[in-house]
Design goal:
Distance between the termini: 24 Å
Strand order of the largest sheet: 11-10-9-5-2-1-15-14
Shape: globular
CATH topology of the largest domain: TIM Barrel
Number of domains: 3
Number of strands: 21
Number of helices: 16
CATH architecture of the largest domain: Alpha-Beta Barrel
CATH class of the largest domain: Alpha Beta
Helix content: 25-40%
CATH superfamily of the largest domain: Glycosidases
Structural class: alpha/beta
Bound molecules: 6-O-alpha-D-glucopyranosyl-D-fructose, calcium ion
């Protein structure tokens, strides 16, 4: 394995709308990010991945792009963006852009021209006289009718996100150009949205499924692999950059085909199997969280994937403390345990804004407080099902992607230091006690723990590049060695909450030095009793 810089980089994901508003319009923006660069630098992160900041009608908060070479005025100007790249660079921080290859906005010039009957652009998308039975990721049919015409177009996501036709060489060339445009500005790579569904083999009828009928015709197709290889050769290899694919429905083996070193496609991918540990097939049908299932999924990727992109949160997922920890009784401890987890696994770690202060799920009380297009689509479907209203509401509030999109909590003032105006999305009431300023002041702050863990990881060859070996342990305890030559650490995490029986690591007596701990132990002879969410890193 090569030791390219992005393997030991620590990436911090920014959801720009919700990070920091600089001009009081209630929407986070690029000057706001610049304001916070010193804070980000102080955490020790190396790279910022920005969720989309391109021109967009915002039906899916920027994942519906109407101009790939323009900055949305909500976020600022191109000058602001260039300044961000420069200011970040001055602090040793790189910028990674989000790139949506699967679809554009229906307000993109290409789609408009296509609707105007321009043959060239019609072939950028999929128009058909009849729709097939394919389903959309956001619920319902993947086809919608073109207004006032007898034809339909394909959209795997919202109806304002028509899918691009990647078998058309013109589409390929457009993206070669777009990628070069940003790389020439000095960005360090791309997070490529749903990048393993971009090439459709055919538009034949799909096999019936509960959701996503038709997926067998577009999931990780050979054509898709071919495009990734060509983009790598024609564009990416000419720059010092990396790509991380957001890839749906992959396991470690199919992931390796998309990012393995000798495949020359992507550099790493986000898998979803650990995010499915508390769901039944589709995320809207939750089952109780059981740490064993999470551990099993993570272990599977640690063992099977060449180089995982590790994450516990992003802008599509509920907050990890609310999900895998205990926000009521052990918020700080569980946030710190999850920090140890994310930063000690093999692979490149991604931290999502607010994770470093243990932010929790949004406290939404009514549907109108939720802005996410997916939530509204799904709620419309739920409404038709024979379920109690309270059940539908529970599903909505637990799963809505807005849980992770509430504004960043900087201080305990009325608008959390996020804006001086009306925030675009409801700020969580708990910003009164969960916020950066108070966390920094408190004795056992979560941010300080992040700094410590990040700094330790950077000093540890074992954590950055070591191999991974799981240690058998009691249920809900995740323990492993990371070893690189002489450098060896043992990581132990009790992922159980309050438990009658204290979990044990089977028969292990430890002769090691604790270098990181969320409960303040200095030395451990025997890992007998682990407190709820206790986590430690030992040099052994
Ligand atoms: O969150 C999901 C569904 O509930 C995921 O299936 C998600 O839609 C999928 O991972 C794709 O996500 C990405 O592309 C979407 C965009 O809405 C998401 O925000 C983005 O992360 C469409 O561009
Ligand atoms: Ca703003």
């Amino acid at each position: 394995m090569n030791k390219e810089w992005w393997r030991n980089a620590i990436v911090y994901q920014i959801y720009p709308r919700s990070f920091k508003d600089s001009n009081g319009d209630g929407i986070g923006d690029i000057p706001g990010i610049i304001e916070k660069l010193d804070y980000l630098k102080s955490l020790g992160v190396d790279c910022l991945w920005l969720s989309p900041v391109y021109a967009s009608p915002n039906c899916d908060n920027g994942y519906d792009i109407s101009d790939y070479k323009a900055i949305h005025p909500d976020f600022g100007t191109m000058e602001d963006f260039d300044l961000l790249v420069k200011e970040a660079k001055d602090r040793g921080i790189k910028i990674v852009m989000d790139l949506v290859l699967n679809h554009t906005s229906d307000e993109h010039e290409w789609f408009r021209k296509a609707l105007d009957g321009d043959k060239k652009y019609e072939n950028y998308y999929f128009f058909r006289e009849k729709k097939n039975n394919w389903g959309s990721f956001f619920g319902g049919s993947a086809w919608d009718k073109v207004p006032a015409e007898d034809k339909y177009y394909l959209h795997l996501f919202s109806k304002k996100q028509p899918d691009l036709n990647w078998s058309n060489p013109d589409v390929y060339n457009e993206f070669v150009d777009i990628m070069r445009f940003w790389l020439d500005k000095g960005v360090a790579g791309f997070r490529c949205d749903v990048v393993n569904v971009i090439y459709k083999n055919s538009l034949e009828k799909g096999k019936r499924k509960i959701a996503l009928t038709g997926i067998e015709h577009y999931l990780s197709t050979e054509g898709n692999h071919d495009i990734l290889r060509r983009l790598r050769k024609d564009v990416l290899d000419k720059y010092d950059c990396f790509t991380v694919g957001e890839t749906v429905f992959v396991d470690p083996q199919t992931a390796n085909l998309l990012m393995g070193e000798n495949r020359k496609e992507l550099n790493m991918v986000f898998g979803f199997e650990h995010m499915e540990c508390d769901c039944r097939k589709i995320k809207w049908f939750r089952r109780a969280y059981n740490p064993e299932r999470l551990i099993r999924a993570l272990d599977k990727w640690q063992v099977g994937c060449e180089w995982p992109a590790n994450y516990l949160e992003n802008h599509d997922q509920p907050r990890s403390v609310s999900r895998f920890g205990d926000e009521e009784n052990c918020r700080k401890e569980s946030a710190k345990m999850l920090c140890v987890l994310n930063l000690s696994l093999r692979g490149t770690p991604y931290i999502y804004e607010g994770e470093e202060i243990g932010m929790t799920n949004g406290d939404f009380k009514k549907l109108a407080e939720i802005k996410d297009v997916e939530s509204h689509n799904v709620y419309d479907i739920l409404k038709k099902l024979p379920l109690r209203k309270s059940t539908k509401d529970r599903i909505l509030y637990k799963c809505t992607r807005d849980n992770a999109r509430t504004p960043m909590q900087w201080d305990n003032s009325a608008t959390a230091g996020f804006t001086s105006g009306m925030p675009w999305l409801k700020i969580n009431g708990n910003h009164e006690w969960i916020n950066v300023e108070d966390d920094e002041k408190s004795e056992n702050g979560v941010i300080a723990f992040y700094r410590e863990m990040i700094a330790y990881r950077k000093s540890s060859e074992a954590l950055q590049f070591g191999d991974y070996k799981r240690i058998p342990a009691a249920k809900g305890v995740y323990a492993f060695y990371r070893t690189a030559g002489d450098s060896r650490v043992m990581v132990v995490m009790n992922m159980n909450g309050y438990n009658e029986e204290m979990p044990k690591i089977d028969g292990k007596t430890i002769d090691g030095k604790v270098v990181i701990t969320n409960y303040g132990r200095d030395f451990v002879e025997e890992l007998g009793e682990l407190k709820p969410y206790e986590a430690m890193v030992l040099e052994v």
